[in-house]
Design goal:
The chain is α+β, with helices and mostly antiparallel strands. Helix content is 32%, strand content 24%. It has 25 helices and 50 strands. Strands 3, 4, 5, 6, 7, 8, 9, 10 and 11 form a nine-stranded mixed β-sheet that branches. Strands 17, 18, 19, 20 and 21 form a five-stranded antiparallel β-sheet that branches. Helix 3 crosses helix 4, helix 4 packs antiparallel against helix 16 and helix 4 runs antiparallel to helix 23. The longest helix has 34 residues. The protein starts with a helix and ends in a 43-residue tail after the last strand.
Length: 1131
């Protein structure tokens, strides 16, 4: 809310984001990294604090109002507050009392009890065995001229004989002994009697609780052990003669009993004060309002949760949020009980809703900030960056709310003031548990598969910078579609202030708004006056409790019982309370013999009886949580390793040994299978997920003859078939059953095909295999039937480039280009193939006999047709180009494209959040990376016809924002399914990364580029020639900052065992975060972050979902979608 007040000075209502070098942000960022790296330690601290504060809770609270424990809130509004004397209302009753003191906290001595009984009988007449109820026909009512009452007249006016304007009743601690001096003298155990009869009712069913008949009580083990004053109270109506006689007689007693008692009359000035006592059950309106508040909070929570693309385990997040808020609430209740803060004045349902509304604001701000961090970064860095950005805002919100609550507590009634104190404590605890409990659980979930992938997906979308210039869609539509977050920056504060005002209004509901505001100011002044009055009384006779504070200690059960007597159908009553006459037995020692305890008596009882179980329980709970976390997260959490991992590179390189000569062919699958073919005529099948376990294919008697030469290999993920193309046949090997499948002959051909892949056929046990040769022959092989068919592309010419679409449930499509620059689309229809010419591109850019390369986009059903300086985006259905990209001169066959996960728009077209093409410049051989994204955050790049009208959420390609990056000396490279680019190159001392190919700049001069670890030094004289290869990684999906990192390919060249190498071998993707590359006779497995080798569709091609973490797992990942594939043997 403070940012709204500062709007005239700042020009915005957004919370400020501190500079990354600000000390406060740096402190919280360091703490966030520490908490994410030391999850167990941080979590155990929060668990220990929670155990320390939760364990005492049942011992400090009770529903029995007669003992020393704090009272739990119920479903009632109750309060006793002072009304202005100018209030135009007649009091319902008048209350008069006398307080009898002996020595300090010795009011239960028999002498004091007998003296108090004598005073009581002087004021009311004999009260021994007081039973005032009489038969209706035997009542004897006094006349108007009667100045003295007989006992029968006195009893006839008692409220038990009917409620009239002259009714009266009283309560006194002497009623424990039936107001009999003999019983008092014969009672050897005064304290035992007082504790046994604490629930004894009077003749009008008012319970003689200790709180209404004693003042200044001390408890041990929830038993009364001492009292400082006996309180005898008369309650009467305005016209009761008993009240008049009480007033006359008490003034007489002050003179006649002066030899025995020191009498302190009421202070000068006001002799009485108007109070209102309330006991109101929650009404239907209250229930509706609270129900609506909880419903809105729940709806907001579920709505925000559903729009969080970063959460896969939403139930886990809900449990975590509820647990955090519950811990904050219970911890706050415990602190309030320790410091004797009475929370019983407000209904219990009002306490959680305020904490929920304020806590959710900080929780979702933290989650959204984690989403906005670069997804390829380490978990600890992501958490540290997000917490460093959001914690200062949360801390400012906490400070703001504390100031607001302090100001409100000064002007509201005492019951609402106690609620303000509770809310302030809860806010502090909520921030503590957010910084410990929730932060560590979030860091664990980010590191786990369930949240890590989804966070990375959302970061691609969320990191698109908004454009402030235009709004193409209504704010409400955007919010409902989840494109912008529902702002809660002031929701918590509004709910908090609103509830405080509503609670205060409950105590002044019959008054106008102006009168209520006047009462708020009056309350503040009255509290100051009462504090000064109480201080004088305490100094004069050292009272343990003043009359005013004693009145406010009356629990709501007493108020309910009194209301049932004087106003049975009401929920409140007003009383004219006269200041008591205080009688102090002469010769008493009123010096403070012991110091008033600082904390509630229940605290001392807890320390005496529960301290040992308390410590043991806390230790056991902490140890159990530690063991549970070690068991559940054994393969993900290790504090020592995490600490070292935060200093590690995201890049890791592993070497696979198994060939004697150079590796010629590589193919891999998403579940970690790798097949390599070497010049040593060895075919090895590797399981990268199992640490590189491998076996040789074709080494047994069942193997078919003539495996070599192998011209091409491909792998099918769904049924785990491996296809090997030799000179005259195709061989099949099943990776699951470890058996050979049927082989099928092909026309002899000794050159590598242009395309060799598995097609789709739901009815076939083995999918068909399609190969396209350079001479324009397309061959379809059906191994299950032993059949093959061929098709010759019309207009015979040598194929220059070809790419294919093999979407599931759709016929395959092949687009090929010839050396003459012609492009044709060949589609399978039934058992035949149909060819058609594709004519796209502006005549201005199309040249005769120009080399044209083809790139398929399988997830989009589009092709890229690349010429020397243009790239056409072509729809495979309509064969029309929807957009032409302007590029630098492209080296043939070097273009690659990747994109974010596609989604379907309402208009039916495919849409993306980002699209990237990367290629080598034909002249400089630099890698050019061009990324396209929408101008506005609420838009998407749509693959619709540019001539058709577009929706508001569609960003036409002509308006797309282009970001260009240049990477010098890229070597060979691939893009991971996440969009992270990984390459291997020769080391060079030149600076490698620029924004502009004409004006290269050092990486340090880029805003938004984070060079995590760049190796630019020239090779040392001791370096071997074959040891100058390095791996590089580049991610442009960080939005505000890109990530660039390098690492040596050969950490220890002497132990690699590879042959002399001048050129790298084949390169292929494996899993979702790894690539493999042949380095002469060894295979290098390069992993970015953490690889899990999952087979379900989490990080498919172009998903923009890097499965990244800064540490390596200690145990094998579980394969979620399919069972692990067996292996024949390891060698």
């Amino acid at each position: 809310m403070i940012w709204y007040f500062l709007y005239p000075f700042r020009g915005t209502t957004e919370a400020p984001v501190l500079d990354s070098n600000h000390p406060l942000r740096s402190f919280f960022a360091r703490y966030g990294r520490y908490a994410a790296s030391h999850v167990l330690s941080t979590l155990l601290i929060s668990v220990a604090v929670a155990a320390i504060l939760i364990y005492p809770f049942p011992f400090l609270y009770t529903t029995d109002f007669t003992n020393s424990a704090s009272s739990l809130p119920r479903h009632v509004w109750t309060d006793a507050h002072i009304l202005d004397d100018k209030t135009a209302c007649e009091p319902d009753v008048i209350m008069r009392s006398i307080w009898i003191h002996g020595s300090y906290f010795q009011a239960l001595d028999k002498d004091i009890l007998l003296g108090a009984l004598e005073l009581q009988d002087q004021l009311l007449g004999p009260t021994i065995d007081f039973r005032p109820r009489q038969e209706p026909d035997s009542l004897e009512l006094p006349t108007g001229t009667t100045k003295h009452l007989t006992l029968k007249q006195r009893d006839s006016l008692h409220v038990s004989n009917g409620l009239t304007n002259a009714s009266w009743f009283f309560h006194s601690p002497l009623q424990y002994w039936s107001c009999s001096s003999d019983l008092i003298e014969r009672d050897p155990h005064i304290l035992a009697t007082v504790n046994q009869r604490k629930n004894q009712p009077t003749s009008v069913n008012v319970t003689l609780r200790h709180s209404i008949v004693f003042s200044g009580k001390r408890f041990e083990d929830r038993q009364l052990v001492a009292a400082d004053a006996l309180v005898i109270t008369l309650i009467h109506h305005r016209d009761s003669p008993v009240g008049s006689l009480w007033q006359e007689r008490v003034q007489t007693l002050a003179n006649t009993m002066a030899h025995k008692w020191k009498v302190i009359p009421p202070q000068d000035g006001r002799l009485s004060q108007l109070y209102e006592f309330q006991f109101r059950l929650m009404s239907k309106v209250d229930a509706i309002l609270l129900g609506s508040a909880y419903s809105l909070v729940l709806i907001y929570f579920l709505f925000s949760l559903s729009k969080l693309r970063a959460v896969k385990s939403k139930v886990g997040l809900m449990v975590t949020v509820v647990a955090q808020i519950a811990l904050a609430i219970i911890s706050s209740f415990t602190i309030c009980a320790i410091f004797k803060i009475d929370l019983s004045k407000i209904p219990r349902l009002g306490y959680p809703v305020v904490v929920f509304s304020m806590s959710l604001e900080n929780i979702f701000r933290l989650i959204n900030s984690v989403i906005l961090t670069p997804s390829e970064d380490s978990t600890s860095n992501r958490i540290g960056h997000a917490f460093g950005e959001t914690a200062p805002i949360a801390l400012a919100s906490v400070a703001q709310n504390l100031l607001i609550l302090y100001g409100l507590s000064r002007v509201v009634s005492p019951g609402v003031s106690a609620f303000c104190t509770f809310a302030a404590i809860a806010i502090v605890f909520d921030f503590f548990y957010l910084s410990t409990f929730f932060l560590t659980v979030l860091s664990v979930d980010v590191r786990r598969t369930e949240l890590s992938d989804a966070l990375a997906k959302a970061s691609i979308r969320s990191n698109l910078l908004p454009h402030a210039g235009s709004t193409h869609q209504a704010w409400l539509d955007n919010m409902l579609q989840g494109k912008i977050a529902m702002s809660t920056r002031i929701a918590g504060t509004v709910v908090m202030v609103g509830f405080v005002l509503i609670a205060q209004w409950h105590f002044f509901e019959n008054e106008s708004v102006i009168k209520t505001l006047h009462n708020l100011l009056q309350i503040a002044r009255n509290q100051d006056d009462l504090r000064s009055l109480q201080s004088r009384l305490l100094v004069e006779v050292h009272q343990a409790r003043s009359p005013t504070s004693w009145l406010r200690l009356q629990d709501h059960e007493t108020a309910r019982e009194v209301i049932n007597i004087i106003k049975p159908s009401a929920h409140s009553y007003t009383a004219r309370v006269f200041d008591p006459y205080i009688f102090v037995l002469k010769g008493s020692d009123r010096m403070l013999s012991v110091q008033e305890p600082l904390f509630s008596p229940a605290i001392y009882d807890f320390v005496r009886h529960q301290l040992t179980p308390f410590f043991i329980t806390t230790l056991v709970v902490t140890a159990l949580v530690r063991l549970l976390m070690n068991y559940l997260l054994w393969d993900q959490l290790s504090e020592a390793d995490d600490h070292n991992a935060t200093q590690d590179s995201l890049l890791s390189v592993k070497t696979l040994h198994g060939h004697h000569l150079d590796v010629a062919l590589l193919t891999a699958s998403s579940d970690g299978h790798l097949v390599s073919v070497g010049l040593d005529r060895i075919i090895r099948v590797w399981n990268i997920k199992e640490g590189g376990c491998n076996y040789i294919l074709g080494g047994d008697k069942t193997s078919p003859p003539a495996l070599f030469p192998v011209l091409a290999i491909c792998m099918e993920d769904e049924f785990h078939w491996l296809a090997l193309l030799t000179v005259d046949r195709v061989l099949l090997w099943n990776l699951v059953d470890l058996r050979w499948g049927p082989s099928i002959k092909v026309e002899p051909y000794r050159h590598k095909p242009e395309v060799f892949f598995f097609g789709n056929d739901d009815d076939a046990a083995i999918p068909p295999i399609i190969l396209v040769r350079r001479d324009g022959v397309i061959t379809e092989l059906r191994p299950g039937l032993g059949e093959s068919s061929s098709y010759i592309i019309p207009e015979e010419s040598v194929v220059a480039s070809v790419s294919a679409l093999a979407e599931k449930a759709f016929p395959p499509k092949i687009m090929a280009s010839s050396r003459e620059g012609q492009v044709r689309l060949i589609t399978q229809e039934g058992n035949d193939w149909v060819s058609s010419a594709v004519k796209v591109g502006s005549p201005h850019f199309v040249r005769e006999r120009e080399f044209v390369s083809i790139q398929a986009l399988p997830e989009l059903s589009f092709f890229l047709i690349t010429r020397s300086q243009t790239v056409d985006l072509v729809d495979s259905q309509t064969q029309r180009a929807i957009y032409t990209f302007k590029v630098d001169p492209i080296l043939p066959k070097t273009l690659k494209a990747f994109h974010s996960r596609p989604r379907r728009m309402r208009c039916g077209s495919v849409a993306l959040w980002s699209f990237t093409i990367a290629y080598l410049n034909a002249y400089t051989r630099d890698l050019v990376v061009q990324t396209y994204s929408p101008q506005n955050e609420d838009e998407s790049l749509c693959f619709c016809d540019p001539e058709s009208p577009s929706r508001k959420t569609c960003c036409p390609w002509r308006r797309a924002k282009e970001t260009r990056r240049i990477i010098k000396n890229p070597g060979i490279w691939l893009a991971l399914p996440s969009g992270i680019m990984v390459g291997v190159r020769k080391k060079t001392p030149q600076k490698q990364f620029t924004n502009d190919p004409c004006h290269p700049l050092p990486p340090s001069q880029f805003s938004g580029l984070r060079n995590r670890r760049q190796t630019l030094e020239p090779p040392t004289p001791t370096q071997h020639v074959h040891d100058d290869w390095e791996v590089w990684m580049f991610s442009h999906f960080g939005g505000k900052q890109d990530t660039w990192e390098t690492a040596p390919l050969c950490v220890d060249a002497e132990d690699d065992g590879h042959l002399f190498v001048t050129h790298l071998g084949p390169m292929a993707n494996v899993g979702s975060s790894s690539v493999v590359v042949g380095l002469s006779n060894v295979i290098k497995v390069i992993t970015v972050g953490q690889e899990r080798f999952e087979t379900e569709d989490v990080t498919g091609p172009g998903s923009g979902v890097p499965a990244v973490s800064s540490r390596r797992r200690k145990g094998p990942s579980s394969l979620r979608a399919r069972p692990p594939v067996p292996f024949k043997k390891c060698c």
